[in-house]
Automatic annotation (TrEMBL):
Phylogenetic classification of the source organism: Eukaryota, Sar, Alveolata, Dinophyceae, Suessiales
CDD domains: S1_IF2_alpha
Region (Disordered): 289-342
Domain S1 motif stretches: 25-97
Name of the molecule in the record: S1 motif domain-containing protein
Keywords carried by this UniProt record: Initiation factor, Protein biosynthesis
Gene3D superfamilies (UniProt xref): EIF_2_alpha (3.30.70.1130), Nucleic acid-binding proteins (2.40.50.140), Translation initiation factor 2, subunit 1, domain 2 (1.10.150.190)
Gene Ontology terms for molecular function: ribosome binding; RNA binding; translation initiation factor activity
Keyword Protein biosynthesis listed: yes
Acidic residues bias locations: 296-314
Family that this chain belongs to: Belongs to the eIF-2-alpha family.
One GO CC term, this protein: eukaryotic translation initiation factor 2 complex
Length: 342
């Protein structure tokens, strides 16, 4: 009796790009797996099928490191620069300190686009029991070469500026998928329109707003209210008190430039108002795109870092008076402690 044929398995994860390894001096997005105080950090390259990379301790920060947890957290995602690649041994050395702050948002945006396209490829490959590399070889990787990204090509297709199928050859390279072409097109179209038409960006920034005058709380409150004057119908800012004097600003919109401009305008209005009342304004992080999977992680980090100040964390969609009342109470308590000390 012939042995039963084992079911064929299909790879549905894979890498985002055709090259198996990143190029030196390019940026990559990684997830931190392990932190070692003596050697550095071990990470997974999210765009390259989770290949392992390492950030040497000397490449973590330009500043002196007192605690690794202040620089990296296990599970966090970071933008790093590729320092060297040994394809034979599979070694990838990375640097975090060589990435400039202004290079982070563009990389995050590029990653979000590539991930959206790869997600479509994963769904379609799984539905048709195909190795994802076969599908990427036919669709996303050729489009990556011809356009800024496959995402941009898909977007033009959805907006009927081009027809991507005119540029796709299902017969090569690799496995001939011509017989499945119509079904694959239909499936890709479905997921493409769902993801691209309904995509909403979350943008964020972080600032410090403080005022030590007698009417300091009122000055802060007024400054934040001024910031809301930047709101647009398509883009509304919300402000969250992390722990005095730190506030996070977020907005949800479909247009990246609109979101960035709205947050920037909001910050400018807050700065003008608080400084006119002899207060202080500091930008901790410029407006940037926040990836969806980082939203909860970011909130958790804020919570962990502040510890006992967690109870002060209040959301201020329309400037929650309760949050500022808590802030005022905290300030009064601090003043009372100072008087006692005197």
């Amino acid at each position: 009796m012939a042995a039963a044929e084992e079911p064929r398995t299909f790879m549905t994860h894979g890498r985002f790009y055709e090259d198996e390894f990143p190029e030196v001096e390019t940026t990559v997005l990684v997830q931190v797996n392990k932190v070692d105080d003596k050697t550095g950090a071990y990470v997974s390259l999210l765009e390259y099928d989770n290949r392992e990379g390492m950030i040497n301790i000397g490449e973590l920060s330009k500043k002196r490191i007192r605690s690794m947890l202040k620089v990296l957290r296990v599970g966090s995602t970071e933008v790093c620069m590729v320092m060297s690649v040994d394809e034979d041994k599979g070694y990838i050395n990375l640097s975090k300190k060589r990435v400039e702050p202004e290079d982070v948002p563009p990389k995050q945006e590029l990653f979000a686009k590539a991930k959206a396209v790869h997600g479509i490829m994963q769904h379609v490959a799984s539905n048709h029991e195909l190795d994802i590399e076969e599908l990427c070889n036919k669709i996303s990787w050729p489009l990556n070469k011809k356009y800024p990204s496959a995402y941009d090509a898909f977007k033009k297709h959805v907006e009927e500026e081009i027809n991507v199928w005119d540029e796709i050859d299902f017969s090569k390279p690799g496995q001939d998928l011509t017989e499945l072409a119509d079904k694959i097109k239909e499936d890709v179209e479905l997921h493409m329109r769902r993801r691209l038409i309904n995509s909403v960006l979350r943008l964020q920034a972080k600032i410090e707003v403080s005022c030590n005058d007698y009417e300091g709380i009122d000055a802060i409150k007024q400054a934040l209210k001024e910031g809301f004057k930047a709101n647009k119908d398509e883009c509304e800012v919300s402000i969250k008190l992390i722990a005095h004097p730190v506030f996070s600003l977020t907005c949800m919109c479909r247009d990246k430039e609109l979101g960035l401009n709205t947050l920037t305008e909001c910050m400018n209005l807050i700065q003008q108002s608080i400084e006119s009342n002899k207060g202080q304004f500091v930008i901790l992080s410029k407006p940037e795109i926040a990836r969806k999977e980082e939203t909860k992680e970011s909130d958790d980090e804020d919570s962990d870092e502040e510890g006992d100040e967690e109870d002060q964390d209040e959301t201020m969609g329309n400037l929650d008076d309760a949050a500022l009342a808590e802030l005022a109470k905290a300030k009064l308590d601090d003043d009372g402690d100072d008087d006692t000390a005197d």
